[in-house]
Amino acid sequence: MDIKSMKNYVYWLYCQFELITCSYLMEPWEKILFYTFNISMLLMVLYTAYIFVPVHLSMAFQFFLHLFGNEQENTVSIVK
Amino acid sequence: MNHIVHNGGLYKRPFNEAFEETPMLVAVLTYVGYGVLTLFGYLRDFMRQWKIEKCQNATEREEQKDFVPLYQDFENFYNRNLYMRIRDSWNRPICSVPGAKVDMMERVSHDYNWTFTYTGRVIKDVINMGSYNYLGFAQKAGTCQEAAAKVLSQYGAGVCSTRQEMGNLDKHEELEKLVATFLGVESAMVYGMGFATNSMNIPALVGKGCLILSDELNHASLVLGARLSGATIRIFKHNNMQSLEKLLKDAIVHGQPRTRRPWKKILILVEGIYSMEGSIVRLPEVIALKKKYKSYLYLDEAHSIGALGPNGRGVVDYFGLSPEDVDVMMGTFTKSFGAAGGYIGGKKELIDYLRTHSHSAVYATSMSPPVVEQIIASMKCIMGEDGTLVLISPVGKARVQQLAENTRYFRRRLKGMGFIIYGNEDSPIVPLMLYMPAKIGAFGREMLKRNIGVVVVGFPATPIIESRARFCLSAAHTKEMLDTALKEVDEVGDLLQLKYSRHRLVPLLDRPFDETTYEETED
Questions:
Q1: What is its cofactor (chain B) (predicted)?
Q2: If you classify domain B159-367 with CATH, what class do you get?
Q3: So what's the ipTM on this one?
Q4: Which of A65, B80, B140, B384 has an alpha carbon within 20 to 30 A of B227's alpha carbon?
């Protein structure tokens, strides 16, 4: 029964999306056009995030370490 | 929420009016929705122009394509691309008397609302929350109907003349005396059409060299009458007495625009209940201002006559004021009396002047006899057979009280559920805010599926993001009908997520009024 209420909830969320973006009022071909555009934009954003975000995060991480700690691997070994 | 009025004891009862602010997220999402629909509107217009899609709306002929375009403005764009998509919620044909319950003809559209076909079925007993049937006189059986049928067999249906020629029946004289007694004025005159009462009589009362101060949200008939008269029109903010006082002061101090002569007449146009907001005019303050600055007051009681006040005499009765303070009392018989037409009441000299100078009296056909009898019968039902002795009959009192109870109950329950409701606590018009364009169509359709007929309103009758559903309560609604309606509204509200209220009410504009809050109108 949990699956059924989960499905109902997802369907209700989809109805809210339809009402807010007014795709409830569109003819079927307009809906297809609208959803194709939206889903393709969303996929492109996710792909870009997948490619670039880890690289940016690690670069930002190294920058902050350099700024605050300055204890990098090679310097620590020389002191020892 | 009780609002303390700072105006020194003019009000004998609390004046509770509230217009909750639009939530920011809802406003942003409404604009998003309109943006998407506008883009698709441009796409469809492009396709129609390049003949990819068949053009089903009105366009100019080929020979006229080089002239000034007729259909390029925003109103026509809105009509083609947004209104057409939700058009099935309006102009629904009904096939029974519009009482508390009504029968509707079922119709479907196979080409997305460009054309409709009837399935042949009739949707029976739809709870009618859209008709202006405040006292429940829209009936097909009863004393009013019998009296009207008798007069129909005696006088016929048509009058075939204007008031000044051969169309002045003894029934009209009887009705006018009765209306004057009902309102508490010296004399009254009736007209065949309510809209025409305003648009044809304001030009007869004011002309060039006069000033009209009209409320922001006045009805189209008042606006048309004001424009036709040729007087200068200045608009004050809705129900805002500081704005009105500033305009009055400026008018008296500066006079007419170029010549600086004093204005011949200053006429303030207000309505008793505003039908889109459900707000009631602040009549005690308007009358105080009118007396202070020596101007005239034209009160349009189209929705408030019969619906407000302990004796059903309208907004003057509701505030406990004297009808002599209002110079021109206008109203219609369409809403509370179940008939058609309008009236103007006032001093005898005024009405005698209007009998000769009103455009409606000279050119428009007078009221039809069965309609006159319906009004006489319904007024006698409210007032009691002998109108001079008793203020209100038991039957009339029952109806007025039933309407007041229905109003209070319905408003309280809807507010409790969490909807944003505009307007005054005592007005039988209940606007429920919808905001988003898709929800306008969805609300109308879902309520009809659940056998309740409501009126939804969008642009251009309201500002573009403030679309609403308007419930009109009636004395004919029983508590069971209201409970059914409330249950369905609750369900649809959860389905469409309409419960926006955060119970944060905007305080009424009784704050001190300074230069920074008001833009000067151009002369």
A1: pyridoxal 5'-phosphate
A2: alpha beta
A3: 0.80
A4: B80
